[in-house]
């Protein structure tokens, strides 16, 4: 049985390797990476969704989010405080933004709602729907709360290169329902 210190070190090593793979994929990316994401979201027109404002080497969901915004509410995560679930503020392609925590932009005016579909950024994913995030637990806490209210679809959006053979997961880690990359759609059964 691994103790917490070991797991923290294992996760840190997994993150470091995954960040390197993501950076390489980001540097060689082709335009149109959000095409498959747009196709999947088109099947959920009008359902409230959240995306994210890409930072550093994250794959960019903004084209798919802009398309979805023509049909229904689209939000982006707003960090409330360490250890707290995220809240989602309404975003539009032309809406004014301000600096939020960790370098991600957030809407200038807070207009919170609960999304039913979350497009989730990640560092790494596995073939079973496991997700390795940044380590703050924000999405795990948030998905637990939202899924406690109603079915909530979690879609990981990543480069193919971010897939890992095995991830160090904990019981509190919320599984993804789907992962969409620049070339494929993976669906996982609960």
* Major sheet attributes: 8 strands, mixed
User: What is the H level of CATH, i.e. the homologous superfamily?
Assistant: NagB/RpiA/CoA transferase-like
Q: Oligomeric status of the shown chains?
A: single chain
Instruction: Calculate the terminal CA-CA distance, rounded to whole Å.
Output: 25 Å
Q: Kindly identify the CATH topology.
A: Rossmann fold
Instruction: Count helical runs.
Output: 4
Order of the strands making up the biggest sheet:
6-3-2-1-7-10-11-12
What percent strand? 15-25%
Q: How many domains, as an integer?
A: 1
Enzyme class: ligase
Cofactor: Mg(2+)
Protein name: 5-formyltetrahydrofolate cyclo-ligase
EC number: 6.3.3.2
What labels would you give this structure?
FTHF_cligase-like_sf; 190 residues; metal-binding; ATP-binding; eight-stranded mixed beta sheet; Rossmann fold; alpha/beta; 4 helices
Describe this structure in words.
With 190 residues, the protein is α/β, with parallel strands linked by helices. The protein has one domain (2-187): Rossmann fold (3-Layer(aba) Sandwich), CATH 3.40.50.10420. It has 4 helices and 12 strands; from the N terminus they run ααβαββββββββαβββ. The protein has an 8-stranded mixed beta sheet. A two-stranded antiparallel ribbon has the order 4-5. Helix 3 links the parallel strand 1 (49-50) and strand 2 (74-78). The longest helix has 24 residues, at 4-27. Its EC number is 6.3.3.2.
